[in-house]
Amino acid sequence: MNAIIKTQTPELLAQLWHTHKMQEEYAKKKRYEVENALIEALGFDKPEGSKTFRLSEGWKVTCKASSSYKLDEKIWAEIAEEIPGYCRPVKVKIEVDQTGVKWLKDNDPAIWAKCAQAITVTPSKVGISVQKMEEK
User: Fold this and answer.
1) What pLDDT digit, counting tens, does each position of 109-122 carry?
2) How far apart are the first and last CA of the chain?
3) Alpha helices in the chain (DSSP H)
4) What is the percent of the chain where pLDDT is above 70?
5) Three-state SS at 68
6) What pLDDT score was predicted for residue 5?
7) What are phi and psi of 89, to 5 degrees?
8) What is the pLDDT of residues 7-31, one digit of tens each?
9) Are 130 and 18 in contact (CB under 8 A)?
């Protein structure tokens, strides 16, 4: 961490954070505009897949298009039995229930101790939000 930044007041750090966040959002918006213009200029129009374009001056641009797929679980439950098992394009994913983990830790330490053998808990990055309050 920069020693000069580390010695600043929380108020100045909040102001710096806010300034950099605004610059980041502006830069991201501009980057998206350039990306869209580049996609159009290259003539990339695939709905899915990728294509690499080799430009002059050593530039290489790869455009990748994909689609999102969302399952209507209610409808799927109604039709799933009509689809042979080997043809079902649906995955069942087992994942940790974070609310359940927290409840077990607080309310049933013995069962949590058993479960903890299979669950790794890793702290996440601390999130931060900074707002300028209206002065009166």
Assistant:
1) 999 999 999 999 99
2) 35
3) 3-6, 10-42, 73-79, 98-107, 109-115
4) 99
5) coil
6) 83
7) -85, 45
8) 889 999 999 999 999 999 999 999 9
9) yes
Determine contact, residues 71/90, Cβ cutoff 8 Å: yes
Q: In Å, how far from its chain's centre is CA 46?
A: 24
Sketch the domain layout of the chain as residue ranges. Answer: 1-53, 91-120
The answer to whether 52 touches 60, Cβ cutoff 8 Å, is yes
Classified as helix, coil or strand, 52 is strand
Cβ(65)–Cβ(42) under 8 Å?
no
Cα gap 60→90, rounded to integer Å: 36
pLDDT at 41 over 90: yes
- Cα-Cα-Cα-Cα torsion 18, 21, 25, 27, nearest 10 degrees, comes to 120
pTM of the model: 0.68
pLDDT over threshold 70, residue 50? yes
Look at residues 65, 61, 64 and name the one whose alpha carbon lies nearest to residue 42.
61
CB atoms inside a 10 Å sphere around CB 18? 13
Helix, strand counts (H, E) of the chain: 5, 2
